[in-house]
Amino acid sequence: MRATVVVPVLKSRSRGGQTESASTRTPESRLEEATGLAQAIDLDVVNGSIVPVNDPRPATLLGTGKIEEIKALLDERDSGLVIVDHPLTPVQQRNLEKEWNAKVIDRTGLILEIFGRRASTKEGTLQVDLAHLNYQKGRLVRSWTHLERQRGGGGFMGGPGETQIEADRRLLQDRIIKLERELEQVVRTRQLHRAKRRKVPHPIVALVGYTNAGKSTLFNRITGAGVLAEDMLFATLDPTLRRMKLPHGRTVILSDTVGFISDLPTHLVAAFRATLEEVLEADLILHVRDMSDDDNQAQSSDVMRILGDLGIDEAEAEKRLIEVWNKIDRLEPEVHDAMVQKAAGASNVVAVSAVSGEGVDTLMDEISRRLSGVMTETTIRLPVDKLALLPWLYDHAIVDAREDNEDGSITLDLRLSETEAAELERRIGNGPKAPKEDWER
């Protein structure tokens, strides 16, 4: 379908009387992003316009002159769809459709459409359906003949009954309640999976970032997974978890989450909270940034704001977060070198290219260092009846040396964190025939 993108730039008056933009994002970057969102669902964007709005109209948002100007463009380009990169009230959407004689959707509707196309799991489908119904519930403002009052009671004496619009809203609410119950079951299942993962305590590393920052490409690079990774907004939606081994042999679980975006609809934040809770459970968060995007600083602020809404404050983020400056392969050589040097001098930043692999080894080493905590060195001798602990040891400790003894026991030189050292002591001490003298520090 041929589509036109309209980016309203609202102005607000400061107390000093000077005019300033109500948004921190540049209009050009907003237009580029909105166009990318439209192209993500195979729309043919034939025109894009940045429209200054000094005085937002309650009925149409835009002024009369701009509405007529856009209508002429629609007729000229034969465009039957207008995407307005701004929230529209139901009344504004209806009035603009009448003025332009075209279908009109706002930013929220566009993102919902993309998520509906991308959802592939049952959980993702339920979340998108729930968000879409909550969005539609407030938009039953059409005035077709089927909205005439239905007759209640029997014969000619019945009252006016309920309007069709009330019946539609009731049906929507029933469907919403049903979806919420199904989603609650999915949430319980996800919680059970988390509980099982805690019993086999592999650390969890979560990838977060603005959409199209390269999370899925990085995920594939370091896990060897085949997650869809394309140069488009919201190429992947459903969360993916994979086990991976760090350079020293330790196993961790890597989680790829849905990309964030500015002005993420509240319906989606609420619906996807169960998915985003994977981030809350993570031991380490990798904030992937597209450093080739001129607007990456504003994108980073949007991501940090959403993390804050989830309950991860600045102090906690500083302890649990690594910034991954991605797509450095797209930078000019002098900019590339300066950025790599700047990242090397920071304590929580790693510069990488998920496409070429540059910097990925450094990132893996930093993940190992951050997850290891305070490392302790120990030497243990596993008796024959404790050899079942070997897989656990190779997953949770760094094995520096191994000696197979004549009596069938194994002596290991290990490095492991204090937490895992305590867990090892518990595992060796709990089983039968495991006197403490069988192992030594």
Query: Unreliable segments (pLDDT under 50, ≥5 consecutive)?
Result: 13-21, 141-161, 431-441
Element order, helices and strands? EEHEHEHEHHHEHEEHHEHHEHEHEHEEHE
Query: Sheet bearing the most strands, described?
Result: 6 strands, mixed
CATH topology of the largest domain: Rossmann fold
**SS element count, helices:** 15
Residue share in β-strands: 15-25%
Overall pLDDT level = 80
Q: Give the CATH architecture of the largest domain.
A: 3-Layer(aba) Sandwich
Q: What structural class is derived from the secondary structure elements? A: alpha/beta
- Approximately how much helix is present in the residues? 40-55%
What integer value in Å does the Rg equal?
28 Å
Number of domains: 3
Query: Which strand order does the major sheet show?
Result: 7-8-6-9-10-11
Task: Describe the protein's architecture and organization.
There is one protein chain. By secondary structure, the chain is α/β, with parallel strands linked by helices. It folds into three domains: 1-11 and 22-113, Rossmann fold (3-Layer(aba) Sandwich), CATH 3.40.50.11060; 200-370, P-loop containing nucleotide triphosphate hydrolases (Rossmann fold); 373-426. The protein has 15 helices and 15 strands. It has helices spanning 27-39, 64-77, 90-100, 107-118, 122-137, 164-199, 215-223, 266-271, 273-280, 296-310, 314-320, 333-344, 360-372, 390-396, 418-430; strands spanning 2-13, 19-21, 44-53, 81-84, 103-106, 204-209, 240-245, 251-256, 284-290, 321-326, 349-351, 375-382, 398-404, 410-417, 439-440. The strands form three sheets. The protein has a six-stranded mixed sheet, with helices on both faces. Strands 1, 2, 3, 4 and 5 form a five-stranded mixed sheet that branches. The longest helix has 36 residues, at 164-199. The N and C termini lie far apart (70 Å).
